Structure formats: structure tokens, C-alpha cells
Amino acid sequence: MKKVITYGTFDLLHYGHINLLKRAKALGDYLIVALSTDEFNWNSKAKKCYFSYEVRKQLLEAIRYVDLVIPEENWEQKINDIKEFRIDTFVMGDDWKGKFDFLKPYCDVVYLPRTPEISTSQIKEDLKEKAN
Ligand code: C2G
């Protein structure tokens, strides 16, 4: 069984996220999503999520491409995750291109093109504009 892992916040889930998860799953048979916890988002990513970790986890678990959701609590856990879950392929959108090449000794590293024109911050901005 070929196992794939990806990491992210996945707040205000949108089709860019779904596109990423769909393509990540197509690279193997089992997809793990390491979901950034609220604390990790706030302390290390300067992100204040709209939905809590539990809600974001619930949404991801409802997606047919996702087989398991685990918490992402820090920047340093990836190598351990790859070993613990016997990951074959690590996948991220290409806004992260090169940033995780240190994982290459442990698994394949794949950066997929981001879906253009959509992001959580864009959604928030558009909503703010519409409200005015
Ligand atoms: N993504 C995408 N296209 C978009 C928006 C996002 O392909 N239009 C991808 C991102 O490249 C990422 C994934 O969807 O691979 C999740 O995006 P975010 O929730 O923004 O993740 P991020 O905050 O980049 O967290 O340790 C890694 C970090 O946790 C990544």
C-alpha cells in the first residue's frame, strides 16, 4: 500500500484544497492529512482560523480522498511522521516548493501546482468587501 502525507490548515475549505487532496491521493492508495492545530496556527503560522481544529478535522474526514487526519503541532514533526506512518510520498502545493526537500532522504517529495485564484485569505477579503 502506497502511503501519502500532506500538511496544512485547511480553513474555510475550498476547491483549491480539494484539488490538492484529490491529486495527492492519486499518488498512492492511502492519504494522511496532518492538520495544523489551533495552537500551531496561532503560535507558529500567525493564522487565526475561522473553524476550530475539530471542525476542520470533521470536514476533512468527510472527503473521499482522505483516509486519516492527524494533528500537526509543530514544524519539526514531519520526519517522525514519515517514519511512524511509513510514508512513501510527501506532497505540498508548490507555494512550498523546495522548503521540504530535507525530507528527500526519507520519502519522495512532490510539489503540486496550486489552484489559481482561490485562497482562504481571498475568501475573507471578498466577504469583507461584500459586507461594506
Ligand atoms: N493549496 C492549493 N491551492 C490553493 C490553496 C491551497 O493547492 N489555491 C494547497 C497548499 O499549497 C497546501 C494545502 O492546499 O499544500 C493546504 O493549504 P493551507 O491550509 O494554506 O496550508 P499551509 O498554511 O500552507 O500549511 O507544514 C506545512 C504547513 O502546515 C502548510
Layout of SSEs?
Layout: E1 3-8, H1 15-25, E2 30-36, H2 38-44, H3 53-61, E3 68-72, H4 78-84, E4 89-93, E5 108-112, H5 120-131
Parallel strand pairs: 1-2, 1-4, 2-3, 4-5
The structure holds [cytidine-5'-phosphate] glycerylphosphoric acid ester.
Describe the structure.
By secondary structure, the protein is α/β, with parallel strands linked by helices. Helix content is 35%, strand content 21%. It has helices at residues 15-25, 38-44, 53-61, 78-84, 120-131, and strands at 3-8, 30-36, 68-72, 89-93, 108-112. The protein has a five-stranded parallel β-sheet. The structure holds [cytidine-5'-phosphate] glycerylphosphoric acid ester. [cytidine-5'-phosphate] glycerylphosphoric acid ester binds next to strand 1, helix 1 and strand 4.
